[in-house]
Write a structure and sequence with these properties.
This is F-box protein PP2-A13. By secondary structure, the chain is α+β, with helices and mostly antiparallel strands. The chain is built from 9 helices and 15 strands.
Length: 291
């Protein structure tokens, strides 16, 4: 019996030692918040938000200003002052600034929109058809605006028929240093819904297979590009590349002018929908190509 009692005491002593040992081990909650924040700086915003759910320490560390300032573009103060107001910028956390700038921010009477890509923090800008200079746009014999849910701006410009087609976009804006692409979002044919299904009327589509459309781009610092392309794929929205430009000076505005033109007056053109022009990092266009 004495041996039994001795064995039991030995087991209890061993369990106590293991319990004390396990309680002395460190876990994720013991990592200093400053260390966690330093690690999070090297992750993309999506991963930071996922790790914020690990525990309270990670949640607090993920809200540090220096973490989110490292994800904001270099021109974020220009964007924040333009869309959030200087007073709000001084009181908001950098995480809140990032969140607000990732939402669509309209300007110029709602005809343009800028937002940050929520995964990378890069600047993307959209210009509606109403922000573009379109030859003859006020004459309903040639052009009409069509309401549609297929446009982020809820309407598109539709060409019925015309000899001279020219669309010009102009913009002065502050972009982060990098390479950017400009594209037009266009469609041949007029789409609508019938019995809940998407249909596209291409009866008025003509003239685009005779001569190509010319795209031109120029910037205030002397960059230029010209290209030509036939419009194709009736019934489907397509992205037509205008050109690329480089931003080399941080926090300096750059003026951009670009256009789409088919001005050969030997034939009429019609059936074209113009949704918008898009300015985004060149790497985004490369991703679309791969997809």
């Amino acid at each position: 019996m004495g041996a039994s009692i001795s064995s039991t005491a030995s087991i209890r002593e061993k369990n106590n030692e293991e319990s004390n040992s396990s309680s002395s081990k460190t876990g994720l909650g013991d990592i200093p918040e400053s260390c966690i924040s330093s690690i999070l700086m090297h992750l993309d915003p999506h991963d930071i938000c996922k790790l914020a759910r690990v525990n309270r320490a990670f949640h607090r560390a993920s809200s540090a200003d220096f973490v989110w300032e490292s994800k904001l573009p270099s021109c974020y103060k220009f964007l924040a002052n333009k869309f959030l107001g200087e007073e709000n910028l001084s009181t908001m956390s950098k995480k809140d600034v990032y969140t607000k700038l990732c939402q669509p921010n309209r300007f110029d009477g709602g005809t343009k929109e800028v937002l940050l890509d929520k995964y990378s923090g890069q600047v993307c800008l959209f210009m509606s058809s109403k922000s573009l200079k379109i030859t003859g746009i006020d004459d309903r014999r040639y052009w009409i605006y069509i309401p549609t849910e297929e446009s982020r701006f809820k309407n598109v410009a539709y060409l019925q028929q015309m000899w001279w087609v020219e669309v010009i976009g102009e913009l002065e804006f502050v972009f982060p240093v990098g390479s950017y692409s400009i594209t037009f979002r266009l469609q041949l044919g007029k789409s609508s819904k019938r019995l809940g299904r998407r249909v596209c009327n291409d009866d008025q589509v003509h003239g685009w297979d005779i001569k190509p459309v010319r795209f031109q781009l120029s910037t205030s610092d002397g960059q230029r590009s010209i290209s030509e392309c036939y419009l194709h794929e009736p019934g489907q929205w397509a992205y037509y590349h205008v050109g690329d430009f480089m931003v080399t000076k941080p926090n300096k505005p750059i003026k951009i002018k670009f256009s789409l033109a088919q001005i050969d007056c030997t034939h009429t053109k019609g059936g074209l929908c113009i949704d918008s022009a898009i300015i985004r990092p060149t790497e985004f266009r490369e991703r679309l190509k791969k997809l």
